[in-house]
Amino acid sequence: MRKLLAISCILLISLCATSCINVLESIFIRANGSGTYSFAIDMSSMKSMLQMAGEEFDSDELLKEMNMDEASAIAKLDAIDGVSNAGTSFDEESFTIAINFEFDNIDALNKGMSTYLADSTETNPEMIDYFSMNRKTITRISINKFLDTFKASMMESAEGEGVDMAMVKMMFGDMYLASEIKTERRLKSFNNEEYLQKDDNTISWKFYPFKDEDAKPNMGVTLKTK
Hints:
Strand 5 (131-134) and strand 6 (137-140) form a beta hairpin. The chain has one domain. It is of the alpha+beta class. It has helices at 2-13, 44-53, 59-65, 70-78, 106-117, 145-161, 165-171; strands spanning 22-29, 35-42, 83-91, 96-103, 131-134, 137-140, 177-183, 187-190, 195-199, 202-207, 221-225.
């Protein structure tokens, strides 16, 4: 994936930083199946490093390299029936870059996620039903294109740059990939202990890809609402 390679390069550049870069996916689902989706990359650890180095940060160029610019990802998302208000943002204060869109139903959510998380070189990306919904029951399957290819992409980039992977693992042990699911209705229950409940409407999942190589993370979860 082009966007994954770009993210990997960002991580390699920030090897000398004392903190890490984190990835957060957020999904909000209303009772009628509509909602919002956001995929954000927190690069706050790079801000002070770039300032000390006296280097300028080109957010527009980064958006393009990560397939998050208006001409690529946004155009593809806008073409999906049921997807609207697709856009990107860069918060200079928190140094967080994000792509987001609204969806009218679960099918539109799945198509939007499948389109964005797919290889940007694919003309017809595979459509994956990440979510399903039946009245007050919402299910997410344990598949994530980003997570599946992230570590392999990172290792490939490290080898290409001549960076020792042991060093990468040591420096990025605290880096995490996270997913947050929020519902309009209050939660009644959820069945995956890897998720933590944040409040009456929200659960979150977090995985540290460089902390345990043998870990088999499970994003799959079924939520029941009241």
